[in-house]
Every structure is written in structure tokens, then in C-alpha cells.
Amino acid sequence: MDLHLKGRRVLVTGSSSGIGEAIVRLFTEEGARVVVHGRNRERAEAVAAQIGAAGVAIGELVADDGAASIHGEAVSALGGSIEILINNAGGNSAGNTSKPPAAISAPDFLSNYKANALGAVQLCQLCVPDMVAAKFGRIVNVSSAVAMQPNFMGADYSAAKAALNNYTVSLAGSLRGVNVTANVLTPGVIMVDGLVRFGRAKFGDPDMTADEVNARLAAEAVFDVPPAGRFGLPRELAMVAALLASPANGFITGANYRVDGGQVRGLN
């Protein structure tokens, strides 16, 4: 199926590794012109060179002028406005995975909000006017299953991702009839490089493949195993991102597309 991504100008934040890297690789395969974003220039440039990307944008979204700087670099590299924005950058910036909610400080809540919601909001604000003027735009905000099914620990991260989900619905509703869509892509546990390294260390075998780590983690229920019986692959998320970003797919907006193997119960 032709997703009509050829030549489209795309920025994927947090794309020098993991889920973001899988997304830029797939979009480039589909003929899109992609900017790789990361905090480490060497890593981002290496990925960009491997896939033949249009360029790189380097910087911290949480910095005061971070979004504006990244947006400017991306537009310059693409030679035009951003048509497809994939907000993937984020992560548990405070690392509070073992603290109960009442023990998490206000600064940590703020740090996670900036990392997982505010940066995406700022980039949307920078990109949307050009999208509306062109009568085409696609925004995909990468969230997390914990936005809908929060853990007892790490409440600051869960709350930030929930804020991103709600913002996306509001944004979609404001873009009525202009062919600009905004959707959420929600991963569960995904076999990114860090999880593969964790599995190799846990099982004492540095030569295990990602598939072998996946199977062993699931067999031993190191994490809650979803109904799919395994954990997700970065490319599986990339495929859904490409679907949501397709110019041929303008009737899906304000939606939450879960790629979690059934981890979240219910259809929310």
C-alpha cells in the first residue's frame, strides 16, 4: 500500500535511538524527507547518514528556547515547513519509578511535565500555523500505556503523559475542517536497546538477540506479559505512526492508537 509519504517533510523528535529511530527509518523507506532529532549530535548524525535523512536537529526540548531552536533547524534542513510532526521525545526525566506519589517532589512533577508534554505542545504551536495555511498536516504524539493505566509508582511520568493525551484531543478538536489531524500513539513495553541490554545483563548472556531477550522476559514474566504473549518491537509502532501520518488518512483525528499487545484493559 502506498501511504503517499514520498517527499513529505517530517520531523521526528527523540529519533536518534529506540522508537524514534525506528520511525525515521520507516518514513525514509517510504520516501519521506526526515529530520533526525537528538541530544547527542554524533549519534543523531550517524543515524541520519545511515538512512539518508534530510538533516539533523540537536537540542533539549526542555530548554527555554529548545523547541524554537529545534523547529528552526528542522525547517532549514527540510527547505520548507514541517508537514508531519512526530513528538516522540520524552522519558521519565526524574526517574521516580520506586517512589509513591506522595513522596514525589513538585520540581520532579514539573520536570516530567516539561519533558513529556510541554516540549510537544510548543512544537505543535510552532508547526500548526504553517499546516493550517497549507491545508495539510499530521501530528502524532507518542504517549505511554501508563497515561491510561497509571502505575502506583512514577506518578509524575504517568500524569505528564496523561496531559499529553488530553492536549492532543483538544488540539484535534480545534483543527476542524483544515485537513490537519492530531493523534496519540500509545506503546506498552517495547524492546528498545536499553531493554535488550537489561535482558542480556539479567540473564548473563551478552550474545542474546532481541528476539531471544523478548521471549525470555515474557516466559519468566519479568514484566507483566500482555495478552499478545510478548513485548512490542519498535518497528511495530513505526508502522502505526506511518498510517496516522499518511495524507490518505485524513479521517482519523483525536484518537488514541494503542500498540501495547493488549496491556491496557478496555477500549479507552
UniProtKB/TrEMBL annotation:
Gene3D superfamilies: NAD(P)-binding Rossmann-like Domain. One of its GO terms (biological process) is monocarboxylic acid metabolic process. It holds the Pfam family adh_short. It comes from the Bacteria. Belongs to the short-chain dehydrogenases/reductases (SDR) family. This is NAD(P)-dependent dehydrogenase (Short-subunit alcohol dehydrogenase family). It comes from Sphingobium boeckii. The lineage of its organism: Bacteria, Pseudomonadati, Pseudomonadota, Alphaproteobacteria, Sphingomonadales.
